[in-house]
Amino acid sequence: MAITVQRTAEDVSAPTASATRVSPLQPPRARRQNRLTRAWSRTPGRLALIMAGLLALVAVLAGVTVTTANTKTDATWELAERHEPTAADVQRLYRALSEADATAASTFLAAQNASLELRKRYEDDIALAGQTIGLAAVDRGTDPRVAREIDTISRQLPVYAGLVEAARANNLQGLPIGAAYLREASHVMRTQILPAAERLYTIQADRVAEERADAVRFPYLAAGLLLVTLIALVATQVYLWRHFGRRLNLGMVVATAALIVGLLWSSVALTLHATSAADARPDRVTALGQARIVALQARANELLTLVARGNGAQYEEQFDELADELVGKDGKSGLLAKARQDAEGDVAAALANTAGATRSWLEGYREVRKLDNGGRHGEAVERAINEGAAGASAPAFAQLDAGLERALQASREQFVDDIVTAARSLTLLTPGWAVLSVVAAGGIAYGLRERLREYR
Amino acid sequence: MMRSRFLGLLSALLAVATVLAGCGGDVAPRSLVKPRPADRPMPAGVHLDPEVPEAESGSDCGDPTASLAPRGLTIPPGSTMEKIRKRGRLIAGVDQNTYLFGFRNPTTGELEGFDIDIVREIAEKLLGDRNKVQFKALPTGKRMDALKDGSVDLVAYTMTVTCDRRKEAEFSSVYFESGQRILVPKGSDYTEVSDLGNKPVCVPAGSTSLVNLAKMSPPPDLVAVDDLADCLLLLQQRQVEAVSTDDSVLAGMARQDPSVHVVGEPFSKEPYAIGIPKKNTDMVRYVNAVLEEIRKDSWDDIYHRWLEPALGPATPPAAKYK
Question: Structure pTM?
């Protein structure tokens, strides 16, 4: 940028003797350089160069600001309209698969008087899983990790469903081999499908966090360019004032004002944007989703202890581990307590009675184990799967799950709300910068042409 | 004239280019999906290279099947039987996972099977009601513990009587004679255990069945499972060629799947007896008296109901007393 106040005293139209002679023998590049140097040494030439420089600067600035504003707006909307829903869908997939595992065990235990509702819940979960995989597969081209997890889920899910139906068919005929099929199905679910779904969810959740961080990143390039352009404009005006003695050049003032308006507008808009985006906490949605899945997996273990009929030590161990993760060893920490701590508004309301529900569920589980270990299998099953049995583990779990579902929904709403607010604060910033840049360029052209005309 | 010649030339060039493009590169039809064979599912707790447990310590107690001689069905005051009568129910440790011996009927949720019927016969004689039994479903590994801590009156649980076990509990006379055999798909060429060298065979982990097969030469490729039911599942999925363990258990598997059957001669002796806490010798004599009655009256019925379809006709094993 050679437009700063680097002027020589004798430049007012004085043809300098020292000006390099142009020899026709000189190479073209040197000739062009000479022409520029010669133009700079005379006022009209200098004015023309300054104008060209400023216009070029504004053109670049226009390009950068419009692109930046556009990218930011798009990225923010994308966050609310694509990334968050994708992560939420994958989370729901994970949940549906965990629920299918638990529900399959429930219907199996209830055998002939299996409620139609439970059977439907299992089928809906499997259908939803199939649908989601199909949709998530659209995304697979962009990320080989996504492709790998989808591959695992889509290959193993039909195997799982087949084993569950084999279990059901055997069970209906009164053949104990049905239980072996159900345990094998659950094993496929737990060792292959659920881990893949979890990894898939981690990928998507990380993406949401990355995109959000990207969206609120400070636009250094645009800000730097804006600053440089403003300095150049002011310097030009100082130059014009010193050489032509006029205080104000309307065109230049308009150009400067346009850029200052842009600066103020962007500052306010980006501050609002960053504040709203900072309020949106994808980690809270993730934490709630995690709590719900851990609860569902523990529930599946509770039911599998009953399917295993006395050989369920491994399921009891897993239940204890998952319960610890959910409520901590002291019963007061863990994922649920953390979620309650962070909760605000509707989320807090939805989580209000989950502590009580969790406590009665865990008590109900211990009662189920006691009944089963005491040889009262039938009663244990009844307490574990009948959601109408007051004070038993089944209704308590249903209450906990419903509370977590509402909290998750409310938490998503808060997140999307904040992101949409952030996106709205950037409304019109893109066309705004386009218009302001045109105004600035017009002002510069108008202001400097006025001065140039004086030399005609 | 010029124009048409030019066009002719152009179309000739195009034709040549098309042909060249067509045969130049060997572009085969592509597929974006690379097919891979299915991954066979496996139950949890399958050991493909199982540890072979030490054989029984071989402590010598003479004939482990020799029990205490019965002294009739009278119940003297202060006896174990009188205590049970006062309590009003018999507490029996049983299996709930072995089809045909002790299992829970998935339809009714009730325990049923050969062992269960034997227990009900004892309750009938002792308490006058075959339903006055509190069944305690025990995991296999907890059978001896229940006898040692006296939390059950007796254990009827496909339990082979051995000298080692006799050190910790008393046993009734033998009520069923089992032996290790093989279960194979109908139409397969296997007829004896010796046909199974180097073939995948499912056995219960840590069992004497496993030890017996590991001693063969060449030994089969042993696949050990923690839960016996998984053996039938692996056979149904044809991940193993055969299952080998006590024929009583194999019978239960054969009854669940008409496409498999029990073949070959028994190559081990597994005499089943009812376990009773060591101090209750009066109970042992009483149970032996009941078993005498059962051998005369109902053994054939019970055997017929549960085992005959899979194992063929049999007679009750004779009781041996010290």
Answer: 0.79
